[in-house]
Specification:
Helix content: 25-40%
Number of domains: 3
Shape: elongated
Oligomer: single chain
Largest sheet: 6 strands, mixed
Strand order of the largest sheet: 8-13-12-11-9-10
CATH topology of the largest domain: Rossmann fold
Structural class: alpha/beta
Number of helices: 20
CATH superfamily of the largest domain: Methylglyoxal synthase-like domain
Strand content: 15-25%
Distance between the termini: 64 Å
Amino acid sequence: MKKRALISVFYKDGVSELASFLSGAGWEILSTGGTAKLLRENRIPVTDVSSVTGFPECLDGRVKTLHPAIHAGILARRNEASHLETLEKLGLSGIDLVCVNLYPFFEKVPAGLSLEEMLEFIDIGGPAMLRSSAKNYRDVIVLCDPADYAGAVAGITAGNVPLEFRKWLAGKVFDLTSAYDAAIARYLLDDEYPRYWPLSLVKGQDLRYGENGHQSAALYLRADRPGVLGGMEQLHGKALSYNNIRDMDLAWKAVCAFGLPRAGAGPVGADEVQRLVPAASGGLTGGRVCCVAVKHNTPCGIALGNTLPEAYEKTYACDPVSIFGGIVASNTTIDAATAAKLGELFLEIVAAPDFESGALEILTQKKNLRIVKLVKAPLETHEYTAVDGGLLVQQSDRKLLEKWELVTRAAPAAGDIKDMIFGMRAVTFVKSNAIMIVKDEAATGIGGGQVNRIWPTAQSLERSAAAIKAAAEAGKAPWKDSAPATVLASDAFFPFADVIEAAAEAGIRSIIQPGGSLNDKLSIAACDTYGIAMVFTGTRHFRH
């Protein structure tokens, strides 16, 4: 009996060559709409599906292949006599190969189309045929990816398409349709936490290894909204690794928290700041350049400046040791002057929205340095953490503060308010327990990742004093002066007064923290004793 193939594709790459081969091998080609038109233009004989079903395409093409004559031909098991008898009784023939790809729902989600327009890109007949064929893969070769056409051709030419290959092709179908359905569900659902979590991911690339050499890894991107990493452009250097991508993701989120003018994204929490802190006008809602250095998924320096060289010098001065082997990101174009400074270091990555030609000339002299262009502001509304057997899902942390409550007799100096708000934004990217010492909208000491709060407090204060002293002795202090830093920011409350005591000894005069401890009164009393101003924000920012 003559073999039959049903070919109906949205993306036409390689389909004419596949159909030409099948036709030349004696197969009958069934097809629909634009695919049939293309094949005829290439002089490939085609039988319209409507002539098989005895029913015309209708409803603007919504109904073409949804018919027993198609699905019976696909689903009939060739080793079941009753199935073959039924086909003969009904005057139907089997379909032995199905080649289908789907309407571009993934690609249309970011386009901002109306609901009615998006509904027209939900494919019904395509997934139905693919799923039917995949269920009956022992008898039907199913192709949903042009990359597999050659393998099918090779098997047919050899007279045998191996069962394992057929099974693998069937698995690819359900892999595709599950992601396709997830994207549709995610688009239509209003529930923030539906019963089933719809997540549609497509492999972006295999990675050399994971966090360590013995762990395999790959990068998967949202198929329906690929986000920052889906739009990145690597201009130079070695391939990105698992650790590179994690660090770059955090670094980019950190600089974008202070605004990404090209993408129209303002600083995180800017509305709350302007509403709650009347004295915080002038520069707090955007327009500043941010630079961050990241090592082992935590900042080792972060700063704002009126220019990138200014912001970078403050970032570097925070921790000139830890920046070695780290990555540097900026929310503005990398200029030649900054590139010259970066070129003095060993870095893994430099990431930014763009690079001046002079900057690229300098940076590309380092063969392995990864130069990455990122142009989108972070857009993911939720974060995911894998646990054994499941997935933790939470909202992304984008609320900076709930209130601005002065809880001490002393009030912050006017010059400290900007540093307090900068510190609270920046400390959210440091591993908990997190403490940041701030001067002139720059971190001068960072402590985090500890199991109690006094250890990072002591570390950040010590590092701040050392950084300011070293810069002054070298005659390269990037701050307004060489006086000690005066602002401390904490990601969570203080359970004891020990943090206040250490801060007072180091000369801190303003503290910003969420508050909410049963022992808040101890911290407040200690601040009043030492004349320190302290503000509660009501918003904790743990980062585990």
